Amino acid sequence: MTDRVRLDIDGTIATITNDDVDKHNAFDDDMDVRLFEILGELRDRPEVRAVVWRGEGPSWSSGRDVTAIGTNLTELTHHELMVRGHQGIQRLWEIDAPVIVAIQGWAIGGSFQRALLCDIRIAATDARFMLPELVHGVIPDTGGISVLYEMCGHGLVSDMVLTGRELSAEEALNHGIVSRVVRPDVLDSTAYDVAERIATAPAMAVKLARRMIGHLARPAQRASMDDELIYQTFLNRSDDFAEYLAARTDGREPRYRGS
Fold it and tell me: How far is CA 52 from CA 22, 159, 216, 238, 252, in A?
């Protein structure tokens, strides 16, 4: 079991920490499995009233560890890995405690989408957000696009997904992606202040308010994940994706045919 994602519980407040500083907390399969185990444990810990999800080092998470792509040692197919990922991150919805994400530096790709599936996002002034999946021949596949679409509308989602543009903390605040932007040196303390305020509120009221808000968003999120599962599985077997991999290996420009 990896210690690059860890869980600490102090009274009524739990902390999830991304801790692979050298890789800006990029996730590989082992970290995914540990994260999903942690979410399952939190689901079964009703005494936890609030969760802070933070990262060590300069970035919250730079997304997927690209050095681990293609090195899957399990017997799971690509489709099965996606199912595991969707089922694992959906455990967020089964936790009674709200999850507050404290984001510094990069929040990229699937990690950014996981943050979007949480309840509250607080950004440091140096936070940057990006969805670069198309550069790697695939599409965003973690469910966060439906949240981003609901928050920001068609224009920004298309810009971020189709061009991979970088979004600053100030832009994220203006679009409602994060609710606060603070100095990096007070990011953690701000997140814990929010967690403490939630943890000391009436527990049943918090639980039902979170459930009510979740019910507004879940249908679209589930539908988006269903599409992602089909489309990403198709892309993984497409001629264009094979050409992307071949061009990367050969060190040449890819020749895409749209098939």
Answer: 22, 30, 23, 39, 44
Model pLDDT, residue 73:
53
CA 164/CA 138 separation, integer angstroms? 12
pTM for the full predicted model: 0.94
CATH number of this structure's domain 5-203, picked from the four choices 3.90.226.10, 3.10.450.540, 3.30.429.10, 3.30.540.10: 3.90.226.10
pLDDT, tens digit, 9 for 90 and up, residues 11-50: 999 999 999 999 999 999 999 999 999 999 999 999 999 9
pLDDT in tens, 143-157: 999 999 999 999 999
Q: Are 191 and 122 in contact (CB under 8 A)?
A: yes
**What's the Cα-to-Cα distance from 16 to each of 37, 137, 185, 214, 248, rounded to whole Å?**
11, 31, 19, 21, 35
Cβ-Cβ contacts under 8 Å for 6 (sequence gap 6 or more): 16, 17, 19, 34, 38
For every residue of 90-121, which 3-state class applies, written as one string?
HHHHHCCCCEEEEECCEEEHHHHHHHHCCCEE
Q: Is the pLDDT reported for residue 95 higher than 80?
A: yes
On whether the CB atoms of residues 35 and 55 are closer than 8 A, the answer is no
Q: What are the structural domain ranges in the chain?
A: 5-203
